[in-house]
Design goal:
With 314 residues, the chain is α/β, with parallel strands linked by helices. Helix content is 46%, strand content 11%. α3 packs across α12 and α12 packs across α14. The longest helix is centred in the last third of the chain and has 15 residues. The radius of gyration is 19 Å and the shape is globular. The structure holds adenosine-3'-5'-diphosphate (A3P). The site of adenosine-3'-5'-diphosphate has 21 residues, from α3, α8 and α15.
Amino acid sequence: MEGQQANEEDKFILSLPRERGWGIPDLYLFQEFWCPSILIKEVNLFQKDFEAKDSDIIVASFPKSGTTWLKALTFAIVNRQCFSSFENHPLLSSNPHELVPAVEFIYRGDVQFPTIEPRLFGTHTPFPSLSKSIMESNCKIIYISRNPFDTFVSAMSFFGKIKLEPLSTLKMEEAFEMYCNGIIEFGPWWSHMLGFWKESIAKPNRVLFLKYEDLKEDANFQVKKIAEFLGFPFTQEEENNNVIESIVKLCSFEKMKNLEVNKSGIIYQFLEKKYFFRKAEMRDWENYFSPFMREKLSKIIEEKLDGSGLSFMI
Ligand code: A3P
Protein backbone atom coordinates (compact mmCIF):
# COMPACT_ATOMS: atom_id res chain seq x y z
CA MET A 1 0.00 0.00 0.00
CA GLU A 2 2.81 2.38 0.94
CA GLY A 3 4.64 1.48 -2.27
CA GLN A 4 1.52 2.19 -4.28
CA GLN A 5 1.12 5.58 -2.61
CA ALA A 6 4.74 6.45 -3.36
CA ASN A 7 4.17 5.47 -6.95
CA GLU A 8 1.13 7.74 -7.17
CA GLU A 9 3.15 10.58 -5.66
CA ASP A 10 5.96 10.04 -8.18
CA LYS A 11 3.46 10.00 -11.03
CA PHE A 12 1.91 13.22 -9.75
CA ILE A 13 5.33 14.91 -9.54
CA LEU A 14 6.26 13.79 -13.03
CA SER A 15 3.02 15.27 -14.37
CA LEU A 16 3.98 18.78 -13.16
CA PRO A 17 5.54 21.42 -15.43
CA ARG A 18 9.32 21.05 -15.21
CA GLU A 19 12.33 23.28 -15.81
CA ARG A 20 16.01 22.80 -15.17
CA GLY A 21 17.25 24.00 -11.80
CA TRP A 22 19.99 26.58 -11.27
CA GLY A 23 21.99 24.36 -8.95
CA ILE A 24 19.70 21.50 -8.09
CA PRO A 25 18.42 19.17 -10.84
CA ASP A 26 14.89 19.96 -11.98
CA LEU A 27 12.36 22.40 -10.67
CA TYR A 28 8.70 21.45 -10.68
CA LEU A 29 5.87 23.96 -10.68
CA PHE A 30 4.22 22.79 -7.51
CA GLN A 31 1.50 24.85 -5.79
CA GLU A 32 2.46 27.80 -7.96
CA PHE A 33 6.15 27.87 -7.07
CA TRP A 34 9.24 26.29 -8.60
CA CYS A 35 10.06 23.63 -6.07
CA PRO A 36 13.40 21.80 -6.31
CA SER A 37 12.76 18.17 -7.22
CA ILE A 38 14.65 16.95 -4.16
CA LEU A 39 12.28 18.81 -1.83
CA ILE A 40 8.75 18.30 -3.18
CA LYS A 41 7.92 15.29 -1.04
CA GLU A 42 9.46 17.07 1.92
CA VAL A 43 7.36 20.20 1.41
CA ASN A 44 4.33 17.91 1.25
CA LEU A 45 5.28 16.23 4.51
CA PHE A 46 5.95 19.60 6.13
CA GLN A 47 2.46 20.76 5.13
CA LYS A 48 0.79 17.65 6.44
CA ASP A 49 2.81 16.62 9.48
CA PHE A 50 4.43 19.70 11.00
CA GLU A 51 2.94 20.58 14.36
CA ALA A 52 3.64 24.19 15.13
CA LYS A 53 3.83 25.44 18.69
CA ASP A 54 2.75 28.97 19.53
CA SER A 55 6.28 29.63 20.76
CA ASP A 56 7.93 28.58 17.45
CA ILE A 57 9.80 31.15 15.40
CA ILE A 58 10.02 30.75 11.63
CA VAL A 59 12.81 32.52 9.74
CA ALA A 60 11.48 32.69 6.20
CA SER A 61 13.21 33.93 3.08
CA PHE A 62 13.73 33.66 -0.62
CA PRO A 63 17.14 32.03 -1.21
CA LYS A 64 20.13 34.41 -1.17
CA SER A 65 18.30 37.23 0.60
CA GLY A 66 20.24 37.11 3.87
CA THR A 67 18.82 33.96 5.47
CA THR A 68 22.11 33.00 7.12
CA TRP A 69 22.45 36.42 8.71
CA LEU A 70 18.86 36.54 9.98
CA LYS A 71 19.15 33.01 11.39
CA ALA A 72 22.28 34.02 13.31
CA LEU A 73 20.70 37.21 14.65
CA THR A 74 17.48 35.45 15.66
CA PHE A 75 19.35 32.69 17.46
CA ALA A 76 21.53 35.21 19.30
CA ILE A 77 18.55 37.41 20.26
CA VAL A 78 16.23 34.75 21.65
CA ASN A 79 18.91 32.69 23.40
CA ARG A 80 20.86 35.55 24.92
CA GLN A 81 19.96 34.61 28.51
CA CYS A 82 21.41 31.08 28.07
CA PHE A 83 24.53 32.21 26.21
CA SER A 84 25.41 35.56 27.63
CA SER A 85 29.12 35.03 27.07
CA PHE A 86 29.97 36.17 23.58
CA GLU A 87 33.38 34.49 23.86
CA ASN A 88 31.87 31.05 24.15
CA HIS A 89 28.76 31.30 22.02
CA PRO A 90 27.23 28.44 19.93
CA LEU A 91 27.47 30.67 16.87
CA LEU A 92 31.25 30.47 17.16
CA SER A 93 31.22 26.69 16.81
CA SER A 94 28.10 26.02 14.71
CA ASN A 95 26.89 27.38 11.41
CA PRO A 96 23.59 29.36 11.65
CA HIS A 97 21.88 26.75 9.44
CA GLU A 98 22.77 24.09 11.99
CA LEU A 99 21.28 26.10 14.84
CA VAL A 100 18.21 27.14 12.86
CA PRO A 101 17.52 24.20 10.52
CA ALA A 102 15.35 24.49 7.42
CA VAL A 103 12.12 22.51 7.81
CA GLU A 104 12.38 21.20 4.25
CA PHE A 105 15.72 19.56 5.12
CA ILE A 106 14.44 18.26 8.45
CA TYR A 107 11.81 16.29 6.51
CA ARG A 108 14.52 15.08 4.12
CA GLY A 109 16.18 13.57 7.17
CA ASP A 110 19.34 15.68 6.83
CA VAL A 111 18.97 17.46 10.18
CA GLN A 112 17.13 17.01 13.45
CA PHE A 113 14.22 18.93 14.91
CA PRO A 114 15.48 21.60 17.33
CA THR A 115 15.19 20.45 20.92
CA ILE A 116 15.40 23.73 22.79
CA GLU A 117 12.52 26.19 23.03
CA PRO A 118 11.58 28.43 21.47
CA ARG A 119 12.16 26.20 18.47
CA LEU A 120 13.71 28.12 15.58
CA PHE A 121 13.11 26.96 12.02
CA GLY A 122 14.13 28.26 8.64
CA THR A 123 12.08 27.89 5.47
CA HIS A 124 12.15 28.90 1.82
CA THR A 125 8.60 27.62 1.26
CA PRO A 126 6.29 30.44 0.05
CA PHE A 127 3.67 31.73 2.45
CA PRO A 128 0.58 30.07 0.90
CA SER A 129 2.34 26.68 1.00
CA LEU A 130 3.40 26.76 4.65
CA SER A 131 2.01 24.01 6.86
CA LYS A 132 -1.58 24.35 7.97
CA SER A 133 -0.55 24.20 11.60
CA ILE A 134 1.68 27.26 11.17
CA MET A 135 -1.27 29.16 9.75
CA GLU A 136 -3.46 28.11 12.66
CA SER A 137 -0.93 28.68 15.43
CA ASN A 138 0.31 31.93 16.91
CA CYS A 139 3.93 31.31 16.05
CA LYS A 140 5.92 34.26 14.73
CA ILE A 141 7.36 34.55 11.25
CA ILE A 142 10.24 36.85 10.33
CA TYR A 143 10.88 37.26 6.65
CA ILE A 144 13.99 38.73 5.04
CA SER A 145 13.82 40.17 1.55
CA ARG A 146 16.55 41.68 -0.61
CA ASN A 147 16.53 43.81 -3.71
CA PRO A 148 16.07 41.49 -6.71
CA PHE A 149 19.21 42.80 -8.46
CA ASP A 150 21.63 41.70 -5.73
CA THR A 151 19.62 38.53 -5.08
CA PHE A 152 20.14 37.55 -8.73
CA VAL A 153 23.91 38.04 -8.56
CA SER A 154 24.16 36.18 -5.26
CA ALA A 155 22.05 33.30 -6.63
CA MET A 156 24.12 33.10 -9.83
CA SER A 157 27.27 32.72 -7.81
CA PHE A 158 25.84 30.32 -5.22
CA PHE A 159 23.99 27.93 -7.51
CA GLY A 160 26.92 27.94 -9.93
CA LYS A 161 29.04 26.34 -7.22
CA ILE A 162 26.63 23.54 -6.36
CA LYS A 163 27.48 20.41 -8.24
CA LEU A 164 24.12 18.63 -8.03
CA GLU A 165 22.93 20.00 -11.35
CA PRO A 166 24.36 17.56 -13.89
CA LEU A 167 24.10 20.00 -16.79
CA SER A 168 26.79 22.58 -17.30
CA THR A 169 26.58 25.70 -15.16
CA LEU A 170 23.98 28.17 -16.39
CA LYS A 171 25.32 31.04 -18.43
CA MET A 172 24.53 34.52 -17.10
CA GLU A 173 22.17 35.28 -20.01
CA GLU A 174 20.23 32.03 -19.54
CA ALA A 175 19.96 32.52 -15.80
CA PHE A 176 18.79 36.10 -16.25
CA GLU A 177 16.09 35.05 -18.67
CA MET A 178 14.88 32.37 -16.26
CA TYR A 179 14.98 34.85 -13.37
CA CYS A 180 12.88 37.36 -15.32
CA ASN A 181 10.32 34.58 -15.83
CA GLY A 182 10.38 33.68 -12.15
CA ILE A 183 12.07 30.33 -12.82
CA ILE A 184 14.51 29.76 -9.99
CA GLU A 185 14.53 27.59 -6.86
CA PHE A 186 11.42 28.67 -4.84
CA GLY A 187 10.53 31.35 -7.43
CA PRO A 188 8.93 33.41 -8.69
CA TRP A 189 10.76 35.78 -6.37
CA TRP A 190 8.04 38.44 -6.65
CA SER A 191 5.20 36.21 -5.49
CA HIS A 192 7.45 34.83 -2.74
CA MET A 193 8.05 38.32 -1.35
CA LEU A 194 4.48 39.48 -1.90
CA GLY A 195 2.99 36.51 -0.03
CA PHE A 196 4.86 37.41 3.16
CA TRP A 197 4.55 41.16 2.54
CA LYS A 198 0.76 41.03 2.35
CA GLU A 199 0.54 38.87 5.46
CA SER A 200 2.84 41.26 7.35
CA ILE A 201 0.40 44.07 6.57
CA ALA A 202 -2.69 42.03 7.42
CA LYS A 203 -1.17 40.57 10.59
CA PRO A 204 1.73 42.74 11.78
CA ASN A 205 1.99 40.85 15.06
CA ARG A 206 2.43 37.55 13.21
CA VAL A 207 4.79 38.42 10.36
CA LEU A 208 7.69 40.87 10.43
CA PHE A 209 8.93 41.81 6.96
CA LEU A 210 12.57 42.89 6.83
CA LYS A 211 14.91 44.09 4.11
CA TYR A 212 18.56 43.07 3.85
CA GLU A 213 19.44 46.65 2.92
CA ASP A 214 17.81 48.03 6.10
CA LEU A 215 19.83 45.60 8.19
CA LYS A 216 23.00 46.74 6.44
CA GLU A 217 22.09 50.40 7.01
CA ASP A 218 21.31 50.13 10.71
CA ALA A 219 21.67 46.67 12.19
CA ASN A 220 21.31 47.87 15.80
CA PHE A 221 17.93 49.42 15.12
CA GLN A 222 16.69 46.33 13.24
CA VAL A 223 17.91 43.97 15.96
CA LYS A 224 15.95 45.95 18.53
CA LYS A 225 12.89 45.78 16.30
CA ILE A 226 13.24 42.00 15.79
CA ALA A 227 13.66 41.43 19.53
CA GLU A 228 10.52 43.43 20.31
CA PHE A 229 8.51 41.66 17.62
CA LEU A 230 9.57 38.23 18.90
CA GLY A 231 8.66 39.13 22.47
CA PHE A 232 12.27 39.29 23.69
CA PRO A 233 12.78 43.06 24.07
CA PHE A 234 16.08 44.37 25.39
CA THR A 235 16.03 45.82 28.88
CA GLN A 236 17.55 49.21 29.59
CA GLU A 237 20.33 47.44 31.45
CA GLU A 238 21.09 45.30 28.40
CA GLU A 239 21.12 48.37 26.22
CA ASN A 240 23.50 50.10 28.66
CA ASN A 241 25.72 47.02 28.58
CA ASN A 242 25.87 47.14 24.76
CA VAL A 243 24.23 43.74 24.33
CA ILE A 244 22.69 44.82 21.00
CA GLU A 245 26.08 45.89 19.66
CA SER A 246 27.64 42.59 20.83
CA ILE A 247 24.97 40.59 18.97
CA VAL A 248 25.44 42.63 15.82
CA LYS A 249 29.21 42.13 16.04
CA LEU A 250 28.92 38.40 16.67
CA CYS A 251 26.68 37.98 13.62
CA SER A 252 28.57 40.34 11.34
CA PHE A 253 29.68 39.07 7.95
CA GLU A 254 33.37 39.60 8.72
CA LYS A 255 33.13 37.68 11.98
CA MET A 256 31.06 34.79 10.61
CA LYS A 257 32.91 34.36 7.34
CA ASN A 258 36.23 33.99 9.13
CA LEU A 259 35.14 31.42 11.69
CA GLU A 260 36.69 27.99 11.19
CA VAL A 261 33.25 26.40 11.45
CA ASN A 262 32.04 28.38 8.45
CA LYS A 263 35.14 27.99 6.32
CA SER A 264 34.83 24.27 5.70
CA GLY A 265 32.40 21.40 5.97
CA ILE A 266 28.93 20.88 4.61
CA ILE A 267 25.34 21.26 5.79
CA TYR A 268 22.23 19.41 4.65
CA GLN A 269 24.54 16.69 3.26
CA PHE A 270 25.61 18.64 0.17
CA LEU A 271 25.96 22.39 0.68
CA GLU A 272 29.40 23.78 1.47
CA LYS A 273 29.13 26.19 4.37
CA LYS A 274 31.62 28.61 2.84
CA TYR A 275 29.28 29.23 -0.12
CA PHE A 276 26.91 31.10 2.21
CA PHE A 277 29.49 33.84 2.73
CA ARG A 278 30.50 35.67 -0.43
CA LYS A 279 30.77 39.49 -0.47
CA ALA A 280 27.72 40.74 1.45
CA GLU A 281 27.81 44.02 -0.41
CA MET A 282 24.97 46.22 -1.53
CA ARG A 283 24.77 47.08 -5.22
CA ASP A 284 27.25 44.41 -6.27
CA TRP A 285 24.88 43.92 -9.23
CA GLU A 286 26.39 47.04 -10.81
CA ASN A 287 29.48 44.93 -11.53
CA TYR A 288 27.47 42.43 -13.59
CA PHE A 289 24.45 44.09 -15.16
CA SER A 290 24.37 45.53 -18.69
CA PRO A 291 22.09 48.55 -19.31
CA PHE A 292 19.67 46.14 -21.03
CA MET A 293 19.49 43.88 -17.96
CA ARG A 294 19.04 46.85 -15.66
CA GLU A 295 16.17 48.21 -17.67
CA LYS A 296 14.47 44.85 -18.10
CA LEU A 297 14.63 43.88 -14.43
CA SER A 298 13.59 47.38 -13.28
CA LYS A 299 10.47 47.12 -15.44
CA ILE A 300 9.60 43.67 -14.13
CA ILE A 301 9.97 44.82 -10.52
CA GLU A 302 7.80 47.84 -11.18
CA GLU A 303 5.14 45.75 -12.86
CA LYS A 304 5.11 42.88 -10.36
CA LEU A 305 5.20 44.99 -7.19
CA ASP A 306 2.87 47.66 -8.53
CA GLY A 307 0.23 48.70 -6.03
CA SER A 308 1.63 46.51 -3.25
CA GLY A 309 3.46 49.27 -1.40
CA LEU A 310 6.64 47.16 -1.50
CA SER A 311 9.66 48.71 -3.17
CA PHE A 312 13.44 48.42 -3.14
CA MET A 313 16.22 50.96 -3.41
CA ILE A 314 18.65 49.80 -6.07
P1 A3P B 1 26.33 37.87 -1.48
O1 A3P B 1 26.29 36.67 -2.38
O2 A3P B 1 25.81 39.10 -2.13
O3 A3P B 1 27.65 38.06 -0.86
P2 A3P B 1 21.45 33.50 2.15
O4 A3P B 1 21.96 33.45 3.53
O5 A3P B 1 19.98 33.79 2.06
O6 A3P B 1 21.86 32.33 1.36
O7 A3P B 1 22.08 34.79 1.48
C1 A3P B 1 23.46 34.83 1.19
C2 A3P B 1 23.90 36.26 1.05
O8 A3P B 1 23.99 36.85 2.37
C3 A3P B 1 25.28 36.34 0.44
O9 A3P B 1 25.31 37.57 -0.27
C4 A3P B 1 26.16 36.36 1.69
O10 A3P B 1 27.45 36.84 1.47
C5 A3P B 1 25.35 37.26 2.60
N1 A3P B 1 25.64 37.04 4.03
C6 A3P B 1 25.93 35.88 4.67
N2 A3P B 1 26.16 36.08 5.97
C7 A3P B 1 26.01 37.42 6.18
C8 A3P B 1 26.14 38.24 7.33
N3 A3P B 1 26.49 37.76 8.51
N4 A3P B 1 25.93 39.57 7.17
C9 A3P B 1 25.58 40.09 5.97
N5 A3P B 1 25.45 39.36 4.85
C10 A3P B 1 25.67 38.03 4.93
